[in-house]
Amino acid sequence: MDRKSRYDLLNSDGDRRPRRICKECGRALASSYIGDTCQSCKEDAIYREVKEYVSENDVGEYDVAQKFDIPVETVRKWVQLGYMEYKTNK
Ligand SMILES: [Zn+2]
Question: Cα of 42 to ligand 1 centre, how many Å?
């Protein structure tokens, strides 16, 4: 007889309920949520790219927001928190 663990049952194609978790931190995601990592992990990943970009390019918050398709407020928040610095102070 085929004995399945509870985990297998949750992931089988049969009676599959929308049960999604962030692949980075394991936090539960809403079934309507798009993507497979949660908002904070997503921000985390973008943040690393942004930080590198900002340190290598002479750009401001609007350039960054546009390039990475993120809200200007998010960029501003990172700067305010001291997470990153612009190459030049404009
Ligand atoms: Zn996460």
Answer: 7
